[in-house]
Amino acid sequence: MCLAVPACVTEMVGDEIARIRLGEGETFMDVSTMLLEEAPKIGDYVIVHAGFILRILDPIEAQESLKLLREVAQMGEVVPF
Prior knowledge:
Blueprint: E1 7-14, E2 17-22, E3 27-32, E4 45-49, E5 52-57, H1 59-75
């Protein structure tokens, strides 16, 4: 199972490459934008899978998702499906 977490675009590295920041730490990753109709802008939140940005998120949706993920992480419990 994969979990896609919102990531923030920090820089456009090339025509089809964006640098994203994962979470609130210092982990960055270069990912492809080639699956998007329009390139993301710096500050956009995106969903990434297997090195490709799948879509640009609404900022409110991204913040809510990150808030919920933080809450789950703080609980420290694994919830069975």
